Amino acid sequence: MMQILFKRAIECCFKSLDERYKINDELARQHLPPFNFRMSLDYGVLNLALVGDYSQTDLFGSTLNLCSKINSSSLSIPNEIIIGDNLYRFLKSFPTGTAAAVNNYYFINNGEYKITETNRYLTYNIKRINNRAMSITKNNNKKDFLTKKQLSLFKDNEKRFFFHKKKNTKRIILVDDEQDALFTFRMYLRAYDFHITSFTDPSIALNYIRDISHFNDLLVILDIRMENLNGFQLHQQIKAIDSTIKVLFVTALDIVEEILTIVPGISEEQIMRKPVDKNEFTNIVKRLLK
Question: I need a labelling partner for 224 at 20 to 30 A (CA). Which of 48, 52, 211, 260 fits?
Answer without folding.
Answer: 211
